[in-house]
Amino acid sequence: MFDLNMLDTSRIAVQVALYKSAARLPKLLASLKAQTIHDWELHLYDNSCDPAEEARVRSCILQSGMLCQFTFGQKNLGFTAHNEMFHAHNADFVFILNDDVDLAPTYFEKCLERMESDQNCASVTGLLYREDGSLIDTAGMKYGCLGHITEWFAGVPVEKAALFVKAAHQIFGVPCVAALFRRSAIEAVSPDGVPFDPTFFMYKEDADLAVRLRRKGFTSWFEPQATGVHLRGVKETGGSVSARIRDERSRPLKLREQMYQNQWAMFIYHMSWKLGFSDLIRSLWFEELRGASLFFLGSPFAYFRAWHNIHKSWAYYQTRRKQLESMGLAHVSLREV
Fold first, then answer.
1. Considering the chain, what percentage of its residues have pLDDT values greater than 90?
2. β-pair partners for 181
3. What is the CATH number of the domain that holds 6?
């Protein structure tokens, strides 16, 4: 029930990183079983390190009747668990999926159709809604500057995005909530042959991948006919500085460090005058706002810990920057047209 070795490689490998996900898993598995195309295989990696949780997850899989490759991790790898799953198959396309998403039955079908319509396409995402359906969760990544990569219409009422979501669009990149990737494109921009920087435990991993794909000249698409619901775990309250500081402090210490550290890793990997003067100035502004004004005020201990880690990792970051350049990832303007 948990071994795919007897099967031929499917066209799509669906990868889901789990963490205390047993309660959400039945709904997720049901939405996968309902997909209109069937040439895919499922890979699950459990980060919980909890034998009781492992038993609950295995029970969910058995009850679903689905065949999958299930790995119970010996340690929490965070989002880099996807790198482990990527090594476990040779599928031409990789579908990276959060454990708190409910996909419409045609999600795989529509994403694959869009992917195949553009042979230079590296990634596709659909239109995801928040739980009650009145707000959009994401319609793909939006590039403001290297220091400020956000998501199209996140938290915006559906009617305010009606014009945008009527048609497919080329976009900067895709958030790894429910996204289809071309394997050959990932391998073309990854020094270690896996989707995500191995040091990015969580946060910014999809933004870094999106930048790498853009630097190599690949395209990414938003496909509105692929729809789903994302039960987003962390909802930013926005608003005042004090509200944003509360948001910051609500995250575990390790994740606060990772968010800041990974943003600086992206600066080291991708910063160039080719981005344009306005991009550099805007990145400096957002870094000042995020670092000195918010992160330092909200998490001073995490702030200094993050800078300690950045200092320790500096040689690694510089080496990776050179590796990306040697793979032909040109420094270019990343602004969306």
1. 79
2. 94, 123
3. 3.90.550.10
CA 97 to chain centre: 8
Containing domain of residue 22, as a range? 1-99
> Which residue's structure tokens are 């992917």?
115
Cα separation, 196 vs 180, in Å, equals: 15
Number of domains in the chain: 2
β-pair partners for 136: 129
Cβ count near 8 (within 10 Å): 6
Last residue of a domain, one of 68, 83, 99: 99
Instruction: Judge whether 146 and 215 are in contact, CB under 8 Å.
Output: no
Residue 121: CA count within 13 A, CB half-sphere: 25
Sequence-ordered alpha helix ranges (H) in the chain: 25-33, 51-64, 81-87, 107-116, 183-188, 205-215, 241-250, 253-270, 277-287, 296-298, 300-312, 314-326
Whether residue 182 lies inside any domain: the answer is no
How do strand 12-18 and strand 93-97 relate by DSSP bridges?
parallel
pLDDT at 1 over 60: no
- What φ, ψ does residue 29 adopt, rounded to 5°? -65, -35
Q: Amino acid identity of 50? A: D
Residue 254 forms part of a structural domain: yes
Q: What tokens does 264 get?
A: 């600086």
322, 315 contact by CB (below 8 A): no
Dump pLDDT digits (tens) for 145-194: 999 999 999 999 999 999 999 999 999 999 999 999 999 999 999 999 99
The answer to whether residue 110 is domain-embedded is: no
Strands 141-145 and 68-72: unpaired
Q: In whole angstroms, give the CA distance from residue 127 to residue 246.
A: 29
Structure tokens at 177: 């909530």
Q: Is residue 117 part of a domain?
A: no
